[in-house]
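Posting here for the record, re: nickel (II) ion.
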Amino acid sequence: MVVGDKLEQANTQADVANHPLDPLSAEEIDRAVAIVKASAGLTDNLLFETIVLREPSKNDVLNFHPGAYVPREAFLVALDSEKQEVHELIVSLDTNELLQSEHIEGVQPAFIFGDHQTNFLQFESKIKHDPRYVEALSKRGITNPDLVMIDPWPISNFGDEKEKGKRLAIGRAWLRREATDNGYARPIEGLSVIIDLDKSEIFEIQDFGVVPIPPEDGNYATRYQESFREDLKPIEITQPEGASFTVTGKHVDWQKWQFRVGYTPREGLVIHNVTYQDQGKNRSVLYRGALSEMVVPYGDPTNDHYKKQVFDSGEVGIGKCANSLELGCDCLGEIYYFDVSLYDITGRANTQKNVICMHEEDFGVLWKHTDNRIGETEVRRSRRLVVSFFTTVGNYEYGFFWYFYQDGSIDYQVKLTGVVNSSAMLPGAKPKHGTLVAPQVVAHNHQHYFNVRLDMMVDGQENSVYEVDTVRDPISEENKHGNAFSVKKTLLTEEADFPRKIDPYAARYWTVANHSRHNYMGEPVSYKIAPGENVLPFHHDDAVIMKRAAFMTGHMWATEYDRDEMFAAGNYPNQHSGGDGLPKWMSGNRSLENKDVVIWYTFGHNHIPRLEDWPVMPVAYTGFSIRPSGFFDRNPALDVPPSDPHCKCDGDCAC
Ligand code: NI
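Prediction output follows.
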């Protein structure tokens, strides 16, 4: 059996509730923690950063069939807060044994606030009632610390000796006018508190000078809105016969697509084992896809704003901060929700309801043609399957959306909304590195970078990557009139060929091809990675962030598959000085020709704030596409039926 067929088998037999890729259940999380506590020989002061399924080997997954034994293991990262040591642990959930325990030196875990007794709000309360902090507030005329909000920000790593080896965060502050208004309207500029997360106490207060608190409210909540527009009629999405997908456990079957839904606290939504049925056969497209890392670097050099560079995935955990979604609010129509199992810092499991939303959407016209001479129109409506979740990281919201289409295409989209990060300026001052969005309130220029790890499996595991440019042909005997343009296709054979950058003037895209499978015209079958909006960083090459988030410096990256290479900026980006992740792994320059290739696509959204982004930002969209490109022999959506027999024209159809 060729490897491509294995995924077909894995999916067609996936009508079992239990699959080796299913995320840990709440019971398994509790059990994994109990095993670690009982056998790892660590102190009683363990705090848990990560508790996830240790995904089985690809071989085990691809050969899985009901009744087959696949070891079930959990991977944990625990902080021994007494010794301030990070430990990675692997436990067997079959035998309840600790299989592996390793002390990882010189790293910091992602954010963990508080200890066994205190939650984040208690932790925040302790900081803002500290007499030193109260004094700094009173210099600014703030007498009620209860109205102060302190958002913890990663501190980055600027090589400050006194920060070395300490687990720290920067507390940035805002002031509510009343208990429940939008605090971000009143930044407390110039006052930062460096927090020692190990001791839950103040490490240092940094006062860069008093700036008056901005005067105006910036409220968006319903109760602050004086009136609403009155011309909005109801819109209802009904599917009287239900949705067209079926869900079995975590396995989804929709139209010709099949895949599995996974979830981790760091990556959020994970899509596994994606196949598309073509001429009766489930053909593999993608083994695993998920956000591998993201970072939001800011462009203001004043005070300590230069330290704002947040890895929301690796330093915080977008899956940990996910929202429970509500019908009619976040998602409309016939919705299927997946719950997810998470845990608190002490390792106690909890179930969060309705985190992943899945539904179908009408998406306009799929294809159409009018044959004028015979007066005939054929038109098909497009339907897409949407799988998504939303996360709140401090002031910002991100929605992560996978769209599956009937023509074999996949879109990956991030929706950005929430409240822009706000700082204050002196009355009358104009910002160079941001936009005044309200009197004395500046929103700094920044960018949002996302890296999506795509473990491609185009008709099998052995794939190759091409860069495809469109080029102008020179004038020649063959091209006398200079109208000719053609395609230049370059095989990228090794890791040193990457990263590649977008080139909109060459209409550049990349294909992932399988040289052992050919389409109807005899060419290797392939899927293309098609860029959407994209940009490069504007930071100086020597800026700290360029090393910490090297994945921003190119758009298309590729590596040979390695089970342990999962996150573009490395496993522990928090307070890391940089160089880990993609640049490190690619230094071995592995061959990529006919190999198990992993694509890491980076896309950036440049955010020069607008007044219209205040006080809450209308959604901005960014993403890219994964489209068949000679994968099928012809348009695979010819068999989508007409939605309604009356969608034909008689006589005059067009001119
Ligand atoms: Ni933004």
